[in-house]
Specification:
Blueprint (H helix, E strand, L loop, with lengths): L5 E5 L4 H11 L6 E5 L5 E5 L7 E5 L6 H17 L4 E6 L18 H12 L3 E5 L14 E4 L2 H11 L5 E5 L5 H11 L2 E9 L5 E7 L6 E9 L3 H12 L4 E9 L3 H7 L6 E5 L11 E4 L2 H12 L5 H4 L5
Parallel strand pairs: 1-4, 4-5, 5-6, 6-7, 8-9, 8-11, 11-12, 12-13, 13-14
Antiparallel strand pairs: 2-3, 9-10
Helix pairs in contact: 1-8
Length: about 325
């Protein structure tokens, strides 16, 4: 590996994560100006020579989503026009991922639109984690390295969660494959909470599949914003006799409604990653770092080694 060819830059969405990634692999974070004009237009200037370099641009498309997406697109364009040899967009959290199909008339498939924009801007490769739908990888005509946060979670669970009555539950049908993989790895039981969504922020949990009475339950999901699905599931699980309820969520894009719901105490511990900035607000929220995971992926891509062999998790 020729480390002099490796350059890492970041936008403004999650600079602490970018700094942690660089620290974990011993590569300095590149100098770039990423700011806004008074009228709100984004401005990017890369303050280093990157001609012929292998460039990694770290940016989660978390709120303000559209602003951070535009920053990323402009960073990619700036790197392309500066003659970078290869540009990898490192997107720990891929926004718009839930708009991945036409589920009603006359709506867009925005996840595909964002993929088109990234490719059109000049990205040669995408590195991301825990996409809401794995088929989004097929929206790109360039390589996509899709990592999972599960190795980071499993390490924490092995140290902190030791229960002979552990049951892994998915808060909805769509997450059953993930829940089954977690249950298999942890040697736990498997359950499901059926739900009915009333609107974008309100969810009704209607049924528990599986025995959770006197069990320690671990809810697993890829993303939460309002915590409606999680807290509705936790309430039903407790009514069904669960002794404790924890939740492991890859991306916590929490808003005020989420913090209000989490403050009810229905969930004993919320475990998440730093794919997006998370504040605890005094709640029992454990933030695990994906810096080492992402850093090793960067080194392997840079040296043309296998990423899959390092991060594949049983069941995925």
């Amino acid at each position: 590996m020729n480390e002099s060819r490796l350059k890492i830059f970041t936008g403004n969405s999650n600079r602490p994560l970018a700094e942690a990634i660089c620290k974990s692999i011993g590569v300095p974070l590149g100098e770039a100006t990423v700011t806004s004009f008074p009228d709100g237009e984004s401005f990017v200037k890369i303050n280093e020579n990157i001609r012929g370099a292998d460039v990694y641009l770290i940016q989660s498309t978390c709120p303000p989503t559209n602003h951070h997406l535009m920053e990323l697109l402009i960073m990619i364009d700036a790197a392309r026009r500066a003659s970078a040899a290869r540009i990898t967009a490192l997107i720990p959290f891929y926004g718009y991922a839930r708009q991945d199909r036409k589920d009603q008339p006359r709506v867009p498939i925005t996840a595909k639109l964002v993929a088109n924009l990234l490719v059109a801007a000049g990205a040669n490769r995408i590195l991301t984690m825990d996409l809401h739908s794995q088929q989004i990888q097929g929206f790109f005509d360039i390589p996509v390295d899709h990592l999972y946060a599960s190795p980071v979670f499993f390490k924490y669970f092995a140290e902190k969660i030791k229960s002979p009555t552990l049951v892994v539950c998915s808060p909805d049908v769509g997450g059953m494959k993930m829940a089954a993989a977690y249950a298999d790895e942890l040697g736990a039981g498997l359950g499901l909470v059926g739900k009915k969504r009333k609107n974008a922020t309100t969810v009704e949990a209607i049924n528990v599949v599986g025995d959770v009475k006197d069990c320690d339950v671990l809810l697993v999901d890829d993303i939460t914003e309002t915590a409606g699905t999680l807290t509705a599931a936790a309430r039903l699980l407790r009514e069904s006799g669960a002794r404790s309820v924890r939740a492991a969520v890859s991306h916590c894009v929490l808003n005020d409604t989420a913090y209000e719901r989490l403050s009810t105490g229905l969930i004993d511990e919320l475990i998440t990653t730093d794919s997006v900035p998370v504040t605890t607000r005094g709640l029992n929220i454990r933030v695990l770092s994906i810096a080492d995971l992402m850093g090793q992926a960067i080194l392997r891509i840079n040296s043309n080694e296998s990423v899959t062999s390092l991060f594949r998790v049983k069941g995925f």
